[in-house]
Amino acid sequence: MEVVDYDLGPERRDVVPDLRVLVVAPGPRSDSWAYVTVGCWASMEKDGHGLEFVMTAHVRDERFIELMAMIAYYHCGGHQLDLEHSMPIGEPWVPGSTCDHLLISLPYLHGPDLEHCPLPKGHARILWTLPVTAAEIEFRRSHGHEALEQLFDEAEIIPTDPFRSPVV
User: Fold this and answer.
1) Domain ranges in the chain?
2) The overall pTM is greater than 0.90
3) C-alpha pair distances (Å), 24 with each of 62, 81, 128, 159
4) 8, 16 in Cβ contact below 8 A?
């Protein structure tokens, strides 16, 4: 595991002053890299409870560290992401990918133990940021989050595949 301090720049740094990204290498339970925000909870906690985010990717790449910083800033900068929310990336997840949004979901790939993280002064809930397409977000808006997740299950998507086919 590596801890990366990410400099958001002078004005943005005030929004998430303690932002770091944990970069976790593949191990015995996963063949994927995990990128986890650290600092959202400290910036946004209420009554000891707050959120952090995890993204799972096929390789170790600075791009995913940048995306985690983007998520942290978006969340702490006024958008307050939560379960079943989404966020536009503004560009492909990786070059050539059709995934240009992130869907906030339960951390299915990591199991339920990752979702709830006790802290000395409270509790962090860690939610998964799943790369999805604009069409999938539109489907979710029309049919609901559960219906979209059902399509993901039926299609047996590989969530770390940046070039996966859209399910809608």
Assistant:
1) 2-155
2) yes
3) 13, 23, 14, 17
4) yes
